[in-house]
Amino acid sequence: MTAARVGGDRGAIPKSEAVRRAARMPDYARARRTFSWSGARAQMSGLPDGRGLNIAHEAVDRHAATRPDAVALRVVDGNGATVEVTYSELRRRTNRFADVLRGLGMCRGDRVFTLLPRTLDLYVVALGTLKAGCVLSPLFSAFGPEPVAQRLRLGEGRVLVTTPRLHDRRVRPVRDGLPALQHVLLSGDGVPGESDASSLAAALAGADEEFVIPPTDPEDVALLHFTSGTTGTPKGAVHVHEAVVAHHATAAHALDLGADDVFWCTADPGWVTGTSYGTIAPLTHGATLLVDERDFDAERWYRTLAEQRISVWYTAPTALRLLARHGAAAVARHDLSALRHVASVGEPLNAEVVRWSYEVLGTPAHDNWWQTETGAIMISNYAAEEVRPGSMGRPMPGIEAGVLERGPDGRALRGPAGVSEVTAPDIEGELALRAGWPSMFRGYLHEDERYAASFADGWYLTGDVVRRDADGWFWFAGRADDVIKTAGHLVGPFEVESALMAHPAVAEAAVIGTPDPVAGELVKAFVTLRPGWTPDDALHDELLAFGRRRLGSVAPREITVAPDLPHTRSGKILRRLLRARELGLPEGDLSTVETP
């Protein structure tokens, strides 16, 4: 079935010859032809004496040996004070935590959970865990007690590192239901003297700063990331040490990242982005990673970009939209001349925001696409290539992406004849990736059947619906469950939302389908307004008319102005939650929902 095309690639943003020459991947086509994962693997140093491949060694120890005084972490605390940690100091600190785990009797494969804000201890614990051969499972610090307990139970966490405050509020109320949890280490000041927790600082002070990383097979489990679904049970995606090969390669290709960069990833390490690119990837390149403990504030973020001389910035579409709402005057007060590359992930990036970034920040925001399951960026816009606003971009070197034909019910064809790949342009279908890249997840924890169902005939089935244009650019339509089937058309909510956001009153939009006896479903939009606009009948009628002019027959039939839209704490709009509330359906897993 051909989908209605309601977006476009108008106004591609070219790159200058100087930008092309300076990019770390100056020729995308050539990189696609010559790249191999074996070649990317050869860029890793490996453990000494051929003892295998360990993420923490690639991120820390190899640089400590060659560039010991280079700054690895620049940590800005809640009061604005800055502490710099060199690679040699980070090596010593992470060695100490690895020794702490050894002293606690932790063995290869034991799971260590973190429930920490963005502090230095978080990065020391994460990398020290990987050095010890244990499995790191980071949790978002805003989780409530039950989401924390649920993940600790599913992951059979033996060690948890958290703060006294989070321990009191999130862990102690559920501790009796966590029989596998043997040790709780508390970071920071004010550690209580109770027997169920001990001081991280005291444990580190008594540990050895020399540690020999044990032999690590590339297929040893390294990371356990939980991702929410529509049910009440999160999925635990399992990743291995070999993933570092993809982290390193994709950071160079998609983020244009190198050793001379000051890099800021605003994602919390409780999410996969904050681990893959907010911790591991920049350190494997020997870059300086900015860590900012504080929450979003537009003026302070601009000041941080300027004062810290950020050269590569990786953030969320929601953050860029919020910054755009403050106008160009806020940017003009700051010197952002060091900023040369902006990238965005978390949900599709609207074309208007890409153009705003180009006009105001001096470089377009480069959208890219990946999932918790892929472990690394799979599709991206690139520093040396033109940007087509609204597009996900093109596949990474080493990644083969296809569009799977969809049947009348909207599902990908997976019958006896196998997966049917569509090669014709402008046909929508499910995005699939040829299996085999290093950071591909190796399983869902305790859910073998669910994992097997994610693949067909050597393809990983992403569950995302996309369109591929004639030049090979991919355009996101929505999750398979989000696609609206109306009057014989398949309508991707993202393109409708992007069209509505072109209206000057609309700050953000979310689109769902509502049942209709004739059309099957009708398109309904929820919008939030920019400051200075009044949600009256005149504006409502104007938005409906604007939608019809931009979108034709697939325009929203109903528009509701809302004070805010539901997001995950990583910035994704939760359309399924809007749909559930609109139709009175079960709301599913709410553990990742952002609360006011």
From TrEMBL:
A Pfam family annotated for this UniProt entry: AMP-binding_C
Annotated keywords: Acetylation, ATP-binding, Ligase, Nucleotide-binding
EC numbers for this chain: 6.2.1.1
Enzyme class: ligase
GO molecular function: acetate-CoA ligase activity
Signal peptide: none
AMP-binding enzyme C-terminal domain mapped to chain residues: 495-572
Superkingdom of source: Bacteria
Domain AMP-dependent synthetase/ligase: 61-445
NCBIfam families for the chain: PRK04319.1
Protein name: acetate--CoA ligase
Organism: Actinomycetospora chibensis
